[in-house]
Amino acid sequence: MIKPYLMFDRSCEEAFKLYEEAFGGEIIEFQKYGDMPPNPNFPVAEEDKSLVLHAQLKLAENGYIMGSDSQREQTSGDNFAISVELNSEEKALHAWNLLKEEGHVHMDLQATFFAKLHGSVKDKYGHTWMFTVM
């Protein structure tokens, strides 16, 4: 399944509450950075623990919007990604390897506390793809 993924600069929670009201949807997932297990490779400052790590809004009509507060500075036009959710590690690795050629890896495709594999890559055309294998 492919879903738009929006990145925010400290305003994800506020935006998703607005989108929920605007589209008659329902926020079905809201995780904060402070909910993550401690990880020395990914330290979270105390003032960032209340920021949104991951949010998902189910739209009333059809579809989903996902988003988070990014730890990278966001600029207009570079504040979204295409989220690809797959159930096959083999299919994910195939697509990942093709898209990372001449691209830029933001986060290596790796096991995380919430998925078998997760990663983010900007392809050579400038589009960011987020992969998640459950």
From TrEMBL:
Protein name (Swiss-Prot/TrEMBL): PhnB protein
SUPFAM superfamilies in the record: Glyoxalase/Bleomycin resistance protein/Dihydroxybiphenyl dioxygenase (SSF54593)
InterPro entries in UniProt: Glyas_Bleomycin-R_OHBP_Dase, PhnB-like
Domain PhnB-like: 2-130
Superkingdom as given in the UniProt entry: Bacteria
Annotated CDD domains: PhnB_like (cd06588)
UniProt cross-references to Gene3D superfamilies, sorted A to Z: 2,3-Dihydroxybiphenyl 1,2-Dioxygenase, domain 1 (3.10.180.10)
